[in-house]
Automatic annotation (TrEMBL), chain A:
Signal peptide: none
InterPro entries (UniProt xref): 2Fe-2S_ferredoxin-like_sf (IPR036010), 2Fe-2S_ferredoxin-type (IPR001041), Adrenodoxin-like (IPR001055), Adrenodoxin_Fe-S_BS (IPR018298), Beta-grasp_dom_sf (IPR012675)
Domain 2Fe-2S ferredoxin-type intervals: 37-141
GO molecular function, one term: metal ion binding
Gene3D superfamilies the UniProt entry points to: 3.10.20.30
Compartments where located: Mitochondrion matrix
Cellular-component GO terms for this entry: mitochondrial matrix
Descriptive protein name: Adrenal ferredoxin
Organism: Chelydra serpentina (Snapping turtle)
Source organism, top-level taxon: Eukaryota
GO biological process: cholesterol metabolic process; P450-containing electron transport chain; steroid biosynthetic process
Keywords, ordered alphabetically: 2Fe-2S, Cholesterol metabolism, Electron transport, Iron, Iron-sulfur, Lipid metabolism, Metal-binding, Mitochondrion, Steroid metabolism, Steroidogenesis, Sterol metabolism, Transport
Keyword match Mitochondrion: yes
UniProtKB/TrEMBL annotation, chain B:
Source organism of the structure: Chelydra serpentina
Protein's recorded name: NADPH:adrenodoxin oxidoreductase, mitochondrial
Domain of life: Eukaryota
Subcellular location: Mitochondrion
Cofactor dependency: FAD
Entry-linked Pfam families: Pyr_redox_2 (PF07992)
Family as reported in the entry's similarity comment: Belongs to the ferredoxin--NADP reductase type 1 family.
InterPro entries listed in its UniProt record: FAD/NAD-bd_sf, FAD/NAD-binding_dom, Ferredox_Rdtase, Ferredox_Rdtase_adrenod
Top-level EC class: oxidoreductase
Coiled-coil blocks: none
Catalytic activity: 2 reduced [adrenodoxin] + NADP(+) + H(+) = 2 oxidized [adrenodoxin] + NADPH
Pathway named in the protein's UniProt entry: Steroid metabolism; cholesterol metabolism
EC number assigned by the record: 1.18.1.6
Any one of the GO CC terms: mitochondrion
């Protein structure tokens, strides 16, 4: 019933009975749902972190804006001076990403655990086709140990 | 009791919202702990009392809460460069009670981020922002102007803290060990970098820049950095945080040509592609690459891992391919040049007639045995001389032992350790270059520091670090320092120095004008 109410002329609950207002609200609603992209990050310890960004945001923006708990991510703050935002993409997503530049590849080449579908998160901007994609945060050291965390509820 | 505490504790945030969020969380977690303790009194009577709020019960719970606070681990980190800060950051993030104090020899923090990274690489220094956030955490304190091993010993730190992490890096350099190494005009690249980056101990270096040719021994990123600083157009350098004094000296420099000399071949260069690309594109300069060194190399690297392949291909292209029109005209108009010389091992620095000044370098021509990273340079018997008035040895930094009681391996130049735990010394850890050796970029040190922090966390959890042993932390160190007349510089003091440097820099169109005299720094914060 709530859904139907939302589509009634005059809008959903409460305010919108004024004539011109319906178009403004729903157009904005349509736009804002169109430009949202959901991304799943598989963290180093296997945890899945899900976050939402807007089309055009870089994956670094998403991690920073949503305060995702990925250790050491984005040290140089998106200036192609490090490789700490290294992410591994699914094959079908990787193929559709914008071509990599020499500058990005120069830094990616220094990343630990490089794969065939690796890119730097600060250079990948969200597009609609990425909605619900899963990216993996690679291991940072050779002998990754069981991570100890004495900060969370256990 | 411990289970109760962890079950109800809120997540800590070393956050930009500053103290407020953390305080709120601490309040919430305290209330939960209090309730948990009251509830755990067990009997129905206890529950009824809790429910109706017996003041006495609450008081008992509260005093037990106070004793909980005393069980916060006190951890001390020696060194405020990337290793120190990343170790601290990881500990604070993954332990909700730990207190971390970071000690630093100089008044100012950040180590090689401030004193090693080249002035024209400001983006690399962005890590300072995350370090600043860590320093602002209410469970973290920075204490500058304290020399561990002199003002306070490691033993005294171990008495004051549950865990001590040594992250003091590599303040020295490897020596060539050849005749003439101490002639005027010969410097370590480390000292030269310190000089243009305002490291107080190198401010009076006064390198001799009066000859036409400079030779850099070594082919790593530091070698490229010093070559680039020697040859960069002044208007570019003038907009960076290079020190005023060194900029003035470089403005009077006669150096037109810099050779980077390596014992092995092009396939063994230690610099990385971004820095090489930067050098090839350096305005006002042209590269001198001998095609004979590169012929056929493109085929050799066809199946080698991508990083080495692309790096080699870039050198091959620059050496063998005809440059495009734009590049060709740039190279034709260039007034300065730089080049790579391979398979040359330094034998002797040759003196000028006065016997005091370097005038050239004699080198052994080598051949390679083996291939790839493990190739060895073997002398052929042939010898070559190169005329030059400035020699910079860029063959590696080197750590020094801090204290005779701490294990140290003089051959490897590191503190013997396993996963960051110092061998044979419980409660002592190490991270960064003093743990691994002086190579790698900031990300390498970051991962390494997180790894050491993991070891500390493991030991806290398993009880290897005994928290029932109360430690006073900085409280006891402060009285030791006071009795020795040493005044720590706080992070807030650093921010005063920082603001002054930025203000002075603004007048000169630079991000900052570094203060190079520690006395001036201390006067600024009126110590």
């Amino acid at each position: 019933r709530w859904l139907l109410a939302a589509w009634r002329p005059g809008g959903g609950s409460g305010a919108a009975r004024r004539p011109g207002r319906f178009f403004g609200v729903s157009a904005r609603a349509r736009l804002s749902s169109e430009d949202k992209v959901t991304v799943h990050f598989i963290n180093r310890d296997g945890d899945k972190l899900t976050a939402e960004g807007k089309v055009g945001d870089s994956l670094l923006d998403v991690v920073v804006d949503k305060n995702l708990d990925i250790d050491g991510f984005g040290a140089c703050e998106g200036t192609l001076a490090c490789s700490t935002c290294h992410l591994i993409f699914e094959d079908h997503i990787f193929e559709k990403l914008d071509a990599i530049t020499d500058e990005e590849m120069d830094m990616l080449d220094l990343a630990y655990g490089l794969t065939e579908t690796s890119r730097l998160g600060c250079q990948i901007c969200l597009k609609k086709f990425m909605n619900n994609m899963t990216v993996r945060v690679p291991e940072a050291v050779a002998d990754a140990r069981q991570s100890i965390d004495m900060s969370k509820n256990s | 009791a411990d289970a109760g505490r962890s079950r109800f504790a809120a997540r800590p945030r070393v956050s930009r919202a500053g103290g407020v969020a953390v305080e709120a969380e601490r309040l919430v977690s305290s209330v939960w702990v209090l309730l948990a303790r009251s509830r755990s009194m067990g009997s129905r009577c206890g529950r009824v009392c809790w429910k109706w709020g017996s003041p006495l019960r609450r008081l008992t719970g509260f005093s037990r809460l106070l004793s909980t606070a005393v069980l916060a681990p006190q951890i001390c980190v020696v060194g405020s460069g990337p290793a120190g800060f990343y170790t601290a950051q990881h500990l604070l993030k993954h332990h909700r009670l730990a207190r971390v104090d970071i000690y630093e020899k100089l008044p100012v923090p950040f180590g090689l981020v401030r004193f090693g990274v080249a002035p024209d690489h400001p983006e690399v220094k962005n890590v300072i922002n995350t370090f600043t956030q860590t320093a602002h955490s209410d469970r973290c304190s920075y204490y500058g102007n304290i020399t561990i091993g002199k003002d306070v010993t490691v033993k005294e730190l171990q008495r004051a803290y549950h865990a001590v992490v040594l992250s003091y890096g590599a303040e020295d350099n490897r020596i060539l060990g050849i005749p003439g190494e101490n002639l005027s005009g010969v410097y370590s690249a480390r000292a030269f970098v310190g000089w243009y980056n305002g490291l107080p101990e190198n401010r009076d270096l006064k390198p001799d820049l009066s000859s036409e040719t400079a030779v850099v021994l070594g082919q790593g990123n530091v070698a490229l950095d010093v070559a680039r600083v020697l040859l960069s157009p002044l208007d570019i350098l003038g907009k960076t945080d290079i020190t005023e004094g060194s900029l003035a000296a470089i403005a009077c420099s006669k150096i037109k040509r810099v050779w980077l000399v390596g014992r092995r071949g092009p396939l063994q260069v230690a610099f990385t592609i971004k820095e090489l690309r930067e050098m090839i594109n350096l305005p006002g300069t042209r590269p001198l690459l001998d095609p004979a060194d590169f012929t056929g190399l493109g085929d050799v690297v066809k199946d080698v891992p991508r990083p080495r392949k692309r790096l080699t291909e870039l050198m091959v292209k620059s050496a063998l391919e005809k440059p495009g029109e734009k590049e060709a005209s740039r190279w034709a108009a260039a007034t300065k040049e730089w080049g790579l010389k391979f398979q040359r091992s330094p034998l002797e620095v040759l003196p000028a007639a006065d016997g005091k000044q370097a005038r050239g370098i004699r080198m052994a021509v080598t051949r390679l045995e083996g291939s790839g990273e493990s190739a060895r340079a073997v002398p052929t018997g042939e010898v070559e001389e190169l005329e030059c008035g400035l020699i910079l040895s860029s063959i590696g930094y080197r750590s020094l032992p801090l204290d005779s009681l701490i294990p140290f391996d003089p051959k490897l130049g590191i503190i013997p350790n396993s996963l960051g735990r110092v061998q044979g010394t419980p409660g002592l850890y190490c991270s960064g270059w003093v743990k691994r050796g002086p190579t790698g970029v900031i990300i390498t040190t970051m991962n390494d520091s997180f790894d050491t922090a993991q070891s500390v966390l493991e030991d806290l959890q398993s009880g290897v670090l005994d928290l029932s042993n109360t430690k006073e932390g900085f409280k006891s160190v402060r009285s030791i320092l006071h009795s020795r007349g040493v005044h720590p510089v706080t992070f807030s003091d650093w921010e005063t120095i920082d603001a002054a440097e930025v203000a002075r820099g603004k007048l000169a169109g630079k991000p900052r004008e570094k203060i190079v005299d520690p006395q001036e720094m201390l006067q600024l914060i009126s110590h």
